[in-house]
Amino acid sequence: MYRGEALPLNNAVESESATFFGQIVQQSWELFSVLGLDGELLHVSASCQRTLGAILPTSRAFLERVHEEDRQLLRQLFWATAQGGGGGTLDFRVQHMNGEWLWLESRLIAIYSPTGELRQVVFVARDITARKQQEARLLNMAYHDPLTGLPNRRLFREHLNQALLQAKRSGGTMALLYLDIDDFKIINDTMGHDTGDAFLQVFAERVRGALREIDTCARMGGDEFTILLPVVDEPANVETVARRIFQSLQRPWDVGEYQFTATVSMGIAVYPNDGKDAASLLKHVDSALYQVKGHGRNGYQFYRAQTYEKPDNAG
Questions:
Q1: What are the residues whose beta carbons fall under 8 Å from the beta carbon of 124, sequence distance 6 or more?
Q2: 148-202 per-position pLDDT tens digit
Q3: What are phi and psi of 43, to 5 degrees?
Q4: Is the domain covering 21-134 a CATH 3.40.190.10 domain?
Q5: Contact yes or no for 104/125 (Cβ under 8 A)
Q6: Is the C or the N end of the chain the one with fewer CB within 10 Å?
């Protein structure tokens, strides 16, 4: 709870104090405003110009620039404070006059008279956009592969668990594909890791481009990738996706002086037939992948079917 109290002063001291305080407020980089209990804006500091690009004359003008997803939260905090709730803090987004979205860290403080009467609400905020951007970058690094930009193992497991939960609720079908690039070690060993990294980046783009928006392609590490198809209308659709991936990898691409195509070994497991939880599906899709490798690679295998398939263009 944040609660302030107006102290009784003689007129001279009060005037001097108000002038001194006003100068501090006007020079502060923090956005500072005073509101009546009805929400009317009584005072706003010059830092509003510095922070938002303009002095907004009313509370309504300010709220119109608050992000629509945050606006009601800010309203609720103000009214709770104005009705004696004590105040609180809120991080929210607000649009600068140049169109850029900023993050503000705000605090609302209830101001009481010496007799305990609630008088006004003070709103103090500061720009924390740089901090929020850094937090977003760190979060992205924690959940994405830095080389390809794809989700990493951690994020993939979260997506898999969410897809399983949804499939169980709806009674639907989903599929898991596990890809291993054939002979990728040769590229690294003979052409160098820089070429290998560039190869992986294009490979990831090709595979991602063969999928739907709702599908997830993740790099699990090295030359291993997983694909989650969270909604499968018919089992035949999974095979269609597999063939589309193989076809996309047969279009040559250049990396420096080299030209590449790629083949993969791919295992496939389908929920609920091949497993009803993440551990079972991952185990069975891995088993299917190694069946492909045992048959000479460059193909795909459904776990249940135990039949090995080569794509039409495989040699």
A1: 30, 31, 32, 106, 107, 109
A2: 999 999 999 999 999 999 999 999 999 999 999 999 999 989 999 999 999 999 9
A3: -155, 145
A4: no
A5: yes
A6: C
The 3-class SS string of the chain reads CCEEECCCCCHHHHHHHHHHHHHHHHHCCCEEEEECCCCCEEEECCHHHHHHCCCCCCHHHHHHCECHHHHHHHHHHHHHHHHHHCEEEEEEEEECCCCCEEEEEEEEEEEECCCCCEEEEEEEEEECHHHHHHHHHHHHHHHECCCCCCECHHHHHHHHHHHHHHHHHHCCCEEEEEEEECCHHHHHHHHCHHHHHHHHHHHHHHHHHCCCCCCEEEEEECCEEEEEECCCCCHHHHHHHHHHHHHHHCCCEEECCEEECCCEEEEEEEECCCCCCHHHHHHHHHHHHHHHHHCCCCEEEECCCCCEECCCCCC
User: CATH 3.30.70.270 region(s) of the chain?
Assistant: 144-302
Which pTM value belongs to this model? Answer: 0.70
pLDDT value of residue 273:
93
Residue 284 phi/psi, 5-degree rounding, is -75, -35
156-195: b (≥16 Cβ within 10 Å) or e: bbebbeebbeebeeeeebbbbbbbbbbebeebbeebeeeb
Residue range 266-290: average pLDDT?
95
CA atoms within 13 A on the CB side of 30: 12
pLDDT at 212 over 80: yes
The model's pLDDT over 33-79, given as tens digits with 9 standing for 90+, comes to 999 999 999 988 888 888 999 988 899 999 999 999 999 999 999 99
* Domain 144-302 top-level CATH class: alpha beta
Domain(s) of CATH 3.30.450.20: residues in the chain: 21-134
Site of tokens 């790099």 = 219
For position 295, what pLDDT does the model report?
87
Q: Among all residues, which ones are annotated catalytic?
A: 223
